[in-house]
C-alpha cells in the first residue's frame, strides 16, 4: 500500500519501486493511464481525465480514458467554464451528481448541455495539488446520475492524491510549485517529449502566446479573444489556434 498526500492509506495501483528512465515518456504515460484507470474502476466511474492548469488559463490535457472524457475536457477548455475550472480555482472538489439539474444548466450552460448530449450524467472533479498549490484536476464522469457513496467519495479523494503523485514524481514536476504549474509543466514536458501524445494541445498555448503579443494583453485575455472568435465563427478553439500558429489569421486591437 502507498500513503496518499491526505494521509489515507491507499489500495490503488502499485506506484512504488518503479523506475522510469529519464527522457523515456512511454513508461510515464503508462503509469498515468494505469493510475487514472484504476481510480475510474474503483469509484464506479465510466471514464476519467487528467488536466494540468495554471492561473493564467493555460491548460494541458495529459490523459483521457475514452472519447467522452476527452470531449468533456475539450468543451470546458473551449468555453472557459465548467466543473474542472471551478475545482481548480476553488481548490475544492466539485461534485455534479446530476447534470440535468437546472443549477448546473444556469452555472455552466454550454458545458451542461453538451456533456449530457455526449452521454455524461454526473461529473466529479478533484484538484491535484502540491502543498497549497493546485496544479491540475482529476475529472471523473458517469453515464448515470447519482451521488457517490461515502466509500466511493473517499476512493476519489485517494485517487486524486495518487494521480497527483504520479504527475509530480514521474513527470519531473516536483519542483513546479509556484502557481504556474500548467505553463511550466507544459514547457518542460514538451521539451522532454512527455506530453507529445494524442491528448496534447500545445498549439493552443502557443497561439495564445502569439495573440497576447499581437493584442498586448495577458495570456488569459488572449485565450478569451480566441474563444470569442471561435464562437463567432462556429469552429473549435483548436482550429483558431492552428490558423494563428500557421499565420493564416491575426488578431487586432478591440478583440478582447
TrEMBL record:
<feature type="domain" description="GAF">
    <location>
        <begin position="27"/>
        <end position="177"/>
    </location>
</feature>
<feature type="region of interest" description="Disordered">
    <location>
        <begin position="1"/>
        <end position="28"/>
    </location>
</feature>
<protein>
    <recommendedName>
        <fullName>GAF domain-containing protein</fullName>
    </recommendedName>
</protein>
<dbReference type="InterPro" id="IPR003018">
    <property type="entry name" value="GAF"/>
</dbReference>
<dbReference type="InterPro" id="IPR029016">
    <property type="entry name" value="GAF-like_dom_sf"/>
</dbReference>
<dbReference type="Pfam" id="PF13185">
    <property type="entry name" value="GAF_2"/>
</dbReference>
Amino acid at each position: 500500500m502507498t500513503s496518499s498526500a491526505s494521509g489515507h492509506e491507499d489500495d490503488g495501483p502499485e506506484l512504488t519501486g518503479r523506475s522510469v528512465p529519464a527522457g523515456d515518456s512511454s513508461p510515464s504515460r503508462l503509469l498515468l493511464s494505469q493510475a487514472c484507470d484504476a481510480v475510474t474502476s474503483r469509484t464506479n466511474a465510466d471514464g476519467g481525465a487528467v488536466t494540468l492548469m495554471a492561473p493564467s488559463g493555460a491548460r494541458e490535457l495529459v490523459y483521457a480514458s475514452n472519447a467522452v472524457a476527452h470531449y468533456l475536457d475539450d468543451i470546458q477548455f473551449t468555453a472557459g467554464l465548467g466543473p474542472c475550472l471551478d475545482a481548480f480555482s476553488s481548490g475544492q472538489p466539485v461534485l455534479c451528481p446530476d447534470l440535468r439539474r437546472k443549477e448546473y444548466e444556469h452555472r455552466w450552460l454550454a458545458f451542461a448541455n453538451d456533456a449530457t448530449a455526449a452521454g455524461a450524467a454526473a461529473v466529479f472533479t478533484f484538484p491535484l495539488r502540491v502543498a497549497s498549490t493546485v496544479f491540475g484536476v482529476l475529472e471523473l464522469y458517469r453515464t448515470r446520475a447519482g451521488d457517490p457513496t461515502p466509500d466511493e467519495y473517499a476512493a476519489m479523494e485517494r485517487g486524486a492524491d495518487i494521480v497527483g503523485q504520479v504527475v509530480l514524481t514521474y513527470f519531473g514536476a516536483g519542483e513546479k510549485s509556484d502557481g504556474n504549474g500548467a505553463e511550466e509543466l507544459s514547457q518542460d514536458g514538451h521539451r522532454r517529449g512527455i506530453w507529445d501524445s494524442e491528448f496534447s494541445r500545445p498549439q493552443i498555448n502557443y497561439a495564445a502566446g502569439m495573440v497576447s503579443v499581437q493584442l498586448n494583453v495577458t495570456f488569459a485575455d488572449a485565450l478569451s479573444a480566441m474563444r470569442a472568435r471561435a464562437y463567432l465563427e462556429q469552429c473549435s478553439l483548436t482550429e483558431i489556434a492552428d490558423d494563428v500558429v500557421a499565420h493564416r489569421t491575426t488578431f487586432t486591437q478591440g478583440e478582447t
